[in-house]
Design a protein that fits this description.
The complex is a heterodimer of chains A (525) and B (149).
Chain A (H helix, E strand, L loop, with lengths): L1 H24 L4 H29 L2 E4 L10 E4 L1 H28 L6 H20 L3 H19 L5 H32 L4 H7 L5 H19 L7 H5 L5 H26 L6 H20 L4 H22 L2 H32 L10 H4 L1 H15 L5 H15 L3 H30 L2 H5 L14 H4 L9 H19 L1 H16 L1 H8 L7
Helix pairs in contact in A: 1-2, 1-4, 2-3, 2-4, 3-4, 3-10, 3-13, 3-20, 4-5, 5-6, 5-10, 6-8, 7-22, 8-10, 10-12, 10-13, 11-12, 11-17, 12-13, 12-16, 12-17, 13-15, 13-16, 13-20, 13-21, 15-17, 15-20, 16-17
Chain B lengths: L4 H18 L4 H22 L22 H31 L8 H7 L4 H12 L17
Helix pairs in contact in B: 1-2, 2-3
The chains are: A mainly alpha (525), B mainly alpha (149).
Protein name (chain B): Multisubunit sodium/proton antiporter, MrpC subunit
InterPro entries (chain B): CPA3_antiporter_subunitC (IPR050601), NUOK/Mnh_C1-like (IPR039428)
Keywords (chain B): Cell membrane, Membrane, Transmembrane, Transmembrane helix
Chain lengths: 525, 149
């Protein structure tokens, strides 16, 4: 069993990297390249599925890379949380890749230059997977850099003026967060003499409380920028919407969640005890409310979705701040739900953009008649994100509120209220978008003002320019249908999934479990 | 642990200058700021490593306590490589932006301006300056090639 795990865990990172090299070599032969990338990512999905099964049996496993035992060598650790994140992110990456292949086939290389796109995409995947299995802080920093550098390339694909402008903002903000992270690693190393997460879990606890607090806040700020938590979230709605639809989808689904994952690790393994509960609760409250108010004011579907993305990060911070097993379990389930649904919505918006020629709400109309399939594909994840039962959004939010109600305090009640309000406002924003874009007859979109548009300013010329409308190839619709199916499957299989998330949370709540994975013989100090 | 005061002062100056440059709107300044902040962080790691010692090579007569901790150097090397790669990419972006728009400044987001209403007069001035190509932050001469290409 251990030998199998030893060979499977590095494969998760190795396969996409080999795939990226292969895709780069095959740059002039698009068909070969596409086959290569899809095969590689499918293999990763299989590997992660096996890993989820095995870790749920054994509780997890740590690989010492190159045979150098911890804390001297690099360790790759897979516990239940890592395995779940690997599986869901590999599925999402595969579906989005298929979607973009469909788009590339239909449009040629103009929007997404294939020769660069595939290698960068696979390197992004390698970075995301590596972040989930990193067993020491510096390896986590390197995986952040891998995925960020790949994301810089993907965000500025084609090098148009709008993308470069968005790209610069994104790059500078990411760089600042990376530098903060690196500086915190330096200080943590100075204080403890190690970067191994399991060993840090022991040694950080021995530091004076004020030094612990400084280190914890530095890490949280660095990860908070990546996760787009409220005061640090302003870069996100400006930079994501300009990228090609599949790129935005994968960024929105995965990149912020890597930040959330790092926050979960910080708050459980590195700094257990939930010392910053009040701060995290206030930040979660502001993220929820301000994010969703931003979404309500937007006139463009992509920007509106970016703001709901920011807002819903608040739910995850809320769950982390509750700090109990129930709260953490609900957070893990919510992260999985949100990765799937947010990606699906952005893919569906990509289809809307092709069908309607724009994503500006004041120009779209009559899409229900033109394409009922897209209407359904947008409607289901929209209800899901808004938290309508029986979808997974409802289960996740209910779990969070329940966990909050078990450890009542006035602030937690305020947050439960804000969470319910955010859920309703999300539903309002998404349903308004749906009824304007799909339900409203086409001619109304050009003639009269709708009361729902009163509060929306005219969208700026540049972003609302109507492009030619294009039919969506089957392969793109197929990929979106697959994502919708996955999101519905999260509801159908909610029982086993939620209990696994709770088991993952139990492992997180006792750092001793994590330490015994890395140091099976004990003796860590 | 004792640390060199000169190194700490140098690090502080680099951080201060870097943050100041990063806050500007000119892309070239941001790049320079990033380089300064990056080097300041590398210095921080070096300071954390403590005073210099012998090379960490196992040999007769050398006690481990006399050796220098090699890990911070490894961290710095990795960080330098990453900084180098990212600066190259940033330079490419700046060049591309210059070719397309003759602009070296980052303008405000149009959608933010639209939602924000009239409060954006300052930003408009700056962005229109950039569009004329007469922005003060732009120190290059000559015409953009984008109009022709």
């Amino acid at each position: 069993m251990n030998a199998l795990m030893n060979s499977l865990i590095p494969l998760v990172v190795l396969l996409p990297l080999i795939g990226a090299a292969g895709a780069l070599v095959a740059g002039r032969r698009p068909k070969l390249q596409v086959t290569f990338s899809i095969t590689v990512l499918s293999l990763v999905v299989l590997t992660s599925a096996v890993l989820v099964y095995l870790t749920d049996q054994t509780g997890g496993h740590a690989v010492t890379v190159g045979g150098w035992s911890a804390p001297f060598g690099i360790v790759l650790v897979v516990d239940r949380l890592s395995a779940l994140m690997l599986l869901i992110s590999s599925i999402v990456l595969l579906c989005v890749l298929v979607f973009s292949v469909g788009q590339g086939m239909a449009d040629g290389d103009r929007e997404t230059p294939v020769s660069i796109y595939h290698p960068s995409y696979l390197i992004l995947a390698a970075g995301v997977f590596n972040a989930f299995i990193a067993g020491d802080l510096f390896n986590l920093y390197v995986s952040f850099e891998i995925l960020l550098v790949a994301s810089y390339v993907l965000l500025t694909l084609g090098g148009t003026q709008a993308r470069i402008k968005a790209g610069i903002t994104y790059i500078i903000v990411s760089l600042v967060s990376s530098m903060l992270f690196l500086a915190s690693i330096a200080m943590i190393y100075g204080a403890t003499g190690t970067v191994n997460i399991a060993q840090l879990s022991v040694r950080l606890g021995e530091l004076p409380a004020d030094i612990q607090l400084v280190l914890q806040i530095m890490l949280l700020v660095a990860f908070g920028i990546k996760a787009a938590v409220f005061p640090l979230s302003f870069w996100l709605p400006d930079s994501y919407p300009t990228a090609p639809a599949p790129v935005t989808a994968v960024f929105a689904g995965l990149l912020t969640k890597v930040g959330v994952y790092a926050i979960i690790r910080t708050e459980t393994v590195l700094f257990p005890g939930n010392t910053l509960q009040t701060v995290l609760l206030v930040v979660a409250l502001l993220t929820l409310v301000i994010g969703i108010l931003g979404a309500v004011a937007q006139s463009d579907i992509k920007r509106m979705l970016s703001f709901t993305l920011v807002s819903h990060i608040g739910y995850m911070i809320f769950g982390i701040a509750i700090g109990t097993v129930a709260g953490m379990g609900a957070t893990i389930y919510y992260v999985i739900h949100h990765i799937t649904v947010q990606t699906t919505l952005f893919l569906a918006t990509g289809l809307v953009e092709r069908q309607g020629g724009t994503t500006a709400l004041n120009r779209l109309g009559g899409l229900l008649k033109a394409s009922p399939v897209i209407a359904v594909l947008f409607f289901i994840p929209a209800l899901n994100l808004g938290g309508i039962p029986p979808f997974s959004g409802f289960i996740g939010k209910l779990g969070l509120f329940e966990a909050g109600a078990q450890t009542p305090s006035p602030l937690i009640w305020v947050l439960i209220g804000a969470g319910a309000l955010t859920s309703l406002l999300t539903l309002y924003a998404l349903m308004r978008a749906w009824s304007l874009a799909f339900w409203r007859p086409k001619r109304e979109a050009h003639e009269e003002e709708s009361p729902a548009l009163d509060r929306i300013e005219e969208a700026p010329e540049e972003t609302s320019a109507v492009q030619e409308t294009k039919a969506s190839p089957r392969i793109m619709i197929g990929a979106t249908v697959a994502m919708v199916t996955v999101s519905v499957a999260l509801t159908v299989f909610a029982g086993p999934l939620y209990s696994m998330a709770t088991r993952a949370a139990e492992t997180l709540e006792s750092p001793a479990d994590y330490i015994s994975l890395v140091f099976p013989e004990g003796g860590v100090s | 642990m004792s640390a060199s005061l000169v190194l700490i002062l140098l690090m502080a100056v680099l951080y201060a200058g870097g943050v100041y440059l990063l806050l500007g709107r000119s892309m070239t300044r941001m790049l320079l700021g990033f380089l300064l902040v990056g080097n300041a962080t590398n210095l921080l790691i070096l300071i954390i490593a403590g005073p210099a010692g012998l090379a960490p090579i196992v040999a007769d007569g050398v006690e481990p306590s006399e050796m220098h901790d090699p890990l911070p150097e490894a961290l710095i090397l990795t960080a330098i490589v990453i900084t180098f790669g990212v600066s190259a990419f940033l330079l490419a972006l700046i060049y591309r932006s210059w070719r397309i728009a003759r602009a070296d400044v980052v303008t405000s987001d149009e959608a933010d301006v639209a939602v924000g209403g009239a409060d954006s007069s300052i930003d408009d001035e700056e962005s229109s300056e950039a569009e004329d190509g007469s922005g003060e932050d732009t120190e290059f001469e000559g015409r953009a090639e984008a109009k022709t290409s």
